[in-house]
Amino acid sequence: MEQKRESWGSRFGFLMAAAGSAVGLGNIWRFPYMTGMNGGGAFIVIYLGCVILVGLSIMIAEFAVGRRTQLAAVGAYKTYSNKWSFAGVLGVLSGFFIMGFYPVVGGWSMYYIIKSLTGLLAVPEAIGDVFGAFIGNPVQPVIWMLVYLAVNLFIVARGVQAGIELAGKILMPILYVLLIIVTLKGFTIPGASEGLRYLFVPNWSEVTGGTFLAALGQAFFSLSLGMGCMITYGSYLNKEEKLPNNALIVVSLDTSVALLAGLAMFPALFAFGLEPTQGPGLVFVVVPQIFASMGGIGPLFSAIFFVALFIAALTSSVSLLEVCVAYLMDEKKVDRRKATYGTGVVMAILCTLSSLSLGAMSGVTFLGVGAFDFFDILTDKIFLAIGGALLAIFAGWFLKKEDLKDELTNGGTLQFGLFEVWYNVVKYVIPVLVGIVAAVGIASIEQTGLMLFGLGIIVVLAIFSKKL
């Protein structure tokens, strides 16, 4: 007898889980340094516009596809056309490869919680050296990665309601409280107003075409779109839920966390005279220097911040793991626990290679990069970019308009007066915008061999995905 599909236990639980999927390292790690490198306030204004125009529209479409088919990414695409099943497989593969390095960074956040309370801030000028020595260590980062991955496996193995939903209901409110605490503390530091001005007073003279591309890319990828997460989560929704309303809430929660992360960092950055354009090292090198400058309470606030980073990473990586597990359950009829732990073993191996590539195996490369950068570039620049473009085209040109309207209005019982506007944006505007981001992202890859390898995988998937 076929097992009944799992579902969310409550609307609040779904919203927290979906928001948790969207909220991740992209909000607390990537958004602040992208803001710093792209002019501050002007970037934020453009980013918010992209979130409303692109992010919200695509999220509604993903929820609709998932709930309509009651299947995860691969099955959902396949329901409409076998020719499109490769787009779902690409989403699963994206989630799998992201989990080949994401738990490594998640492990770093766990280490920094402990390190913040045991001497990290004692010598501020040595914080950069501490980070470099840690990630280059052949043992410590691997241990923390395994602990982090084990937490993910425990949550997903418990199922939708008892695992993913429960974790979201507990962790997301805690995340907000922690970020608000750090933010309020930052406001009390003399000179913090300069950071607020940098964030919220746009300087349009610094805006270039690259600013728009960076904002659109950040908006799309921050929301966990194009990789099957929201289709999978949407497949667990009941027919009474209002999809446009839920999508708006999830997008708002995700964006508010990104803004809170900016507020937690930039006022203090300016108050202590630190550079806002530090790039990816902002969180693990510059932010601890901020807390070190606070004196005796610095270690406590540093630990609070990295707990928030750990929670953000965890709620996102859980959804990536669930995409892979849901594929095995739906398409291969594998038991949830077996699918979870089997996938986890392979991910642990990939993550170990990623961690060692930053230290002991730094001289071992494939197509010009180490394992960590290989998985990062392959997914961020190639798989997610093309997956996002495919999703936009599929939603606008291959889904039945009547099916979408039926899902968005709950069979005509709800009003969605903006349906025609939304549909035309999805069909005509978003594919072009996302296609541009995809093309620019792929063209920016310096390793030609890696670019061709990634594109070759997608071609192979398109040919053979019916057998997967």
Explain how this protein is built.
By secondary structure, the protein is mainly alpha-helical. It has a single domain (11-364), classed as Hydantoin permease (Orthogonal Bundle), CATH 1.10.4160. The protein has helices at residues 11-22, 25-37, 41-69, 73-80, 85-98, 102-116, 127-135, 140-157, 160-187, 192-200, 209-222, 229-234, 243-271, 286-292, 298-332, 336-356, 371-397, 401-408, 419-443, 448-464. Helix 3 crosses helix 4, helix 8 runs antiparallel to helix 16 and helix 17 crosses helix 20. It is globular. The model has no long low-confidence stretch (mean pLDDT 91).
List the helices and strands and how they pair.
Layout (H helix, E strand, L loop, with lengths): L10 H12 L2 H13 L3 H29 L3 H8 L4 H14 L3 H15 L10 H9 L4 H18 L2 H28 L4 H9 L8 H14 L6 H6 L8 H29 L14 H7 L5 H35 L3 H21 L14 H27 L3 H8 L10 H25 L4 H17 L4
Helix pairs in contact: 1-9, 1-13, 1-15, 2-11, 2-13, 2-15, 3-4, 3-10, 3-11, 3-13, 3-18, 3-19, 4-5, 5-15, 5-17, 5-20, 6-8, 6-15, 8-9, 8-15, 8-16, 9-13, 9-15, 10-13, 11-19, 14-15, 15-16, 16-17, 17-19, 17-20
**Count of individual domains:** 1
How are helices and strands ordered from N to C? HHHHHHHHHHHHHHHHHHHH
The average pLDDT is 91
Strand content: under 5%
The rounded Rg comes to 21 Å
Task: Report low-confidence residues grouped into runs of 5 or more.
Answer: none
Helix count?
Answer: 20
The tally of strands reads 0
